[in-house]
Design brief:
Elements (H helix, E strand, L loop, with lengths): L6 H18 L3 H7 L4 H9 L18 H14 L1 H21 L2 H7 L1 H4 L5 E4 L15 E4 L5 E11 L6 E7 L9 E7 L5 E6 L10 E11 L4 E2 L5 H37 L1 E2 L2 E2 L4 H34 L4 H26 L10 H9 L8 H13 L3
Parallel strand pairs: 1-4
Antiparallel strand pairs: 2-3, 3-7, 4-5, 5-8, 6-7, 9-10
Helix pairs in contact: 1-4, 4-5, 4-8, 4-9, 5-8, 8-9, 8-10, 8-11, 9-10, 10-11, 10-12
């Protein structure tokens, strides 16, 4: 692994940092309070190439690599977790899956407008009764004589669901086959039979717009099947490997923002006549925060590097992605917790962003595979046992 960044990687990092600090950071608290979806900012991010970083230029993207994606994601997340998860879903879960498994016609139709930020993409796997156990899904796709499908069922916790133009949907087309009976579809939310349900009142990442979606006799034509019939579960698991790198990057950005705010605070805040940063207990916390942040960053860059190598040479990067996501998300939760503690009463107040960082960090331990699932993935890959 080469630790030197390329000019392109540094360029997209700089673009992301500049936009994050000038356009996102000043309004992040307002969006968090209102829960309003930051549509204008997302469209501008698309124009800057941030909504399709790894998407080839012929499909409207920036045509960059996984390392560039990580660097840009960290910068956006350091300003606001909600903006970063919208960016992550567009890049990792939506565009990545279509680029890997879609036909040329599907890439042209479903990727370009999303990568350019003109429209929003979403990913629908989770259901009310099935989160980690994706094979227990009840959403059904019944094949018709002409090769089309009629879809009925409900999905939950769909990031960007209320505003998405297209959604990558997973439904059970042959229940008798279990995981091999799941098929992936490309859903147009403007078509009859698609309905948005309630918007979730979340603890954190409040501006990212999360809702239930429901299908009532939704008609999906044969050319709206992503990949082959019955390959949905394989597609979902492969896409989630990439998605975990995005969430690891999000966690790093949130943790970095909390750490940097804490560094400034311990130099300025005084107790007993000296800066609190001179107290050994505070210094111990600072040292541990720094180590966890650095370890998370290196693991995530390694996972991104492995993804890039896999795309060139084949293979899997699931273990690297799971390690990055597990360590980064738990580090983010720990670092933001310590940041609030060091700030004391001010850390608990909405006058400062620390409490928002704390709330936003928690979800990184849950979505795209809980910490418990990451441990299962890592252990099973290491032992070969199921």
């Amino acid at each position: 692994m080469d630790f030197r960044y390329t000019e392109d990687q540094l360029s997209i990092q700089s673009v992301a940092r500049d936009f994050a600090q000038k356009r996102i950071a000043p309004v992040a608290a307002d969006f968090d309070a209102s829960g309003e979806f930051p549509l204008e900012n997302i469209r501008e991010m698309g124009q800057l190439g941030l909504m399709g970083i790894e998407v080839p230029t012929e499909y409207g993207g920036a045509g960059m690599d996984p390392i560039a994606y990580v660097l840009a994601m960290i910068e956006i997340a350091a300003a606001d977790g909600a903006h970063s998860v919208i960016m992550s879903v567009n890049n990792s879960l939506y565009c990545n899956g279509i680029l890997k498994f879609g036909s040329e016609a599907q890439k042209q139709k479903y990727v370009r407008a999303i990568a350019e930020g003109k429209d929003i993409g979403a990913f629908a796997l989770t259901e009310p009764q099935s989160g980690s156990d994706a094979t227990a899904m009840r959403c059904r796709a019944v094949k018709q004589a002409d090769g089309s499908f009629i879809i009925n069922g409900k999905k939950s916790w769909i990031t960007s669901g209320p505003v998405a133009k297209y959604i990558v949907l997973f439904a059970m087309s042959d229940p008798a086959k279990g995981a091999k009976g799941v098929t992936a579809f490309l859903v147009d939310t403007a078509k009859a039979g698609f309905h948005c349900g309630k918007t979730e009142p979340k603890l954190g990442i409040r501006a990212s717009a999360t809702c239930e979606i429901e299908f009532t006799d939704y008609h999906a034509s044969a050319d709206e099947v992503l990949g082959a019939e019955g390959e949905g579960f394989k597609i979902a698991m492969g896409v989630l490997d990439a998605g975990r790198i995005g969430i690891a990057s999000q966690a790093i950005g949130i943790a970095r923002a909390a750490y940097e705010a804490t560094l400034d605070y311990v130099k300025e805040r005084k107790a007993f006549g000296v800066p609190i940063g001179s107290f050994q207990m505070t210094q111990s916390k600072i040292a541990d925060m720094k180590c966890k942040l650095e370890a998370s960053t290196l693991l995530t860059l390694r996972a991104a590097f492995a993804k890039g190598e896999t795309e060139k040479n084949g293979g899997r990067f699931g273990t690297e992605a799971a390690c990055a996501k597990l360590v980064s998300s738990e580090a983010a939760m720990w670092i933001t917790h310590q940041a609030v503690q060091i700030h004391g009463g001010m850390g608990y107040s909405k006058e400062m962003p620390l409490e928002r960082y704390f709330r936003d960090a928690k979800i990184t331990e849950i979505y795209e595979g809980t910490s418990e699932i990451q441990r299962l993935v890592i252990a099973r890959n290491e032992t070969g046992l199921r």
